[in-house]
Design brief:
It is built from 2 helices and 3 strands; from the N terminus they run ββαβα. By secondary structure, it is an alpha+beta fold. It has one domain. The protein has a 3-stranded antiparallel beta sheet with strand order 2-1-3, covered by helices on one side. A hairpin with a 4-residue loop joins β1 and β2. Keywords: Membrane, Transmembrane, Transmembrane helix.
């Protein structure tokens, strides 16, 4: 799993790193250089390389397939 530091205040996204220690170093360096040691309001950490959730389109696809299966069962058993 990789982590990526993002600062929305200045529009910066750091390269992905593979440990939390490296992530803290990237975040601290950015805070010192860009924000004079202060914590920007728009900073957050993203997990990279892992799909975090299914999209709504995937959910709709599953729902349509289930509905088709139900209709097929109803047609065959009537």
């Amino acid at each position: 799993m990789a982590y990526q530091y993002r600062c929305d205040d200045c529009g910066t996204t750091a390269e992905p790193v593979h440990s939390r220690v490296a992530l803290r170093a990237v975040r601290g360096r950015h805070r010192q250089l860009a924000h004079h040691g202060l914590r920007p309001d728009g900073e957050h950490i993203e997990t990279v390389g892992v799909r975090q959730r299914l999209s709504w389109r995937t959910g709709c696809g599953f729902a349509v397939l289930a509905w088709i299966a139900v209709l097929d069962w109803i047609i065959r058993h009537l």
